[in-house]
Amino acid sequence: MLEVAFKIASKLLWVTVVFLGITVISFWVIHLAPGSPTDMQTTLNPTATHEVRERLNKIYGLDKPLHVQYANWLSRLVRFDFGRSMSGDNRPVWDRIKERLPLTFGMNIASLVLTLFIAIPIGMFSAWKQNGWFDRGMTVLVFIGFAVPGFWLALLLMLWLGIYYPIFPISGLTSLDYEMLSPTGKLIDLARHLALPIFIYTFGSLAGMSRFMRSSMLEVLRQDYITTAKAKGLPMHRVLFHHGLRNALLPVITLLGLSIPGLIGGSVIIESIFALPGLGQLFYGAVMSRDYSLIMGSLVLGALLTLAGNLLADVAYGLADPRVRAGRQD
Prior knowledge:
Layout: H1 2-32, H2 37-42, H3 50-60, H4 66-78, H5 93-128, H6 133-147, H7 150-164, H8 183-221, H9 224-231, H10 236-259, H11 262-265, H12 268-273, H13 279-288, H14 292-320, H15 322-326
Helix pairs in contact: 1-14, 5-6, 5-8, 5-14, 6-8, 7-8, 8-10, 9-10, 10-14, 13-14
């Protein structure tokens, strides 16, 4: 019991150190970019004098040395206060983030679930029928998805399915008559607006996930216990799902943990193309306006997702492989 508590304490300490390192580097890097929030607010304003800029710098705390600014920001963060936005309506950063959080997380989690449900069977059956017609066809298809840029595919689908054949809406989250629709109609309208973005997310992720699964399953299928299971005459689905799947999932778990931070970063381009009010679009606007508080709030959220992804991967390792729980490497 004492050993387990020590491991947990060590893990938490390491996570804390890594998190602080991420915030220090991020805080320093964003201040290296040319321009500042006050420059963005006063450059195009002919009535803004030097005294006005100095007053804004004092209000935002930008007149202090960088290490003092970081210490002040960190002291607020400890109290779960992300500060106030330095652009727009000067609202609390967390209020602006939590408005956009459900949309971005919902789209990316839906895409992640679809990717798993599609990529894992593709990888498994491609490994089972290695170099067969299914394996070759899926290899060509998924690598097309990997090679095609997401923004180009988004524009192509908007042209085909939104203009030439107007099946799906190509902009925004809801239609103009959304409030007049029934609950079922609202759900259908929302699904139609999100269908193309979620498809693009999913199609672009299939290649990596399915190839990892295929490679891992090929390695598992060469093991002696799989040969024994085949020799006993067990059906294919039992060999794959009961004996092979659990051991083949370990590399996929790693990839899954690393994909969690992309819930924010990977949304910038697609949300901008489809004019979706999500976190990616908010983060892009914060960078363009040099809104340091909002940028740091988004980066902290990304850092927390990265660390959470690593922790979830460790837990999933233990669930998938009992040897990890027992601390053995055999």
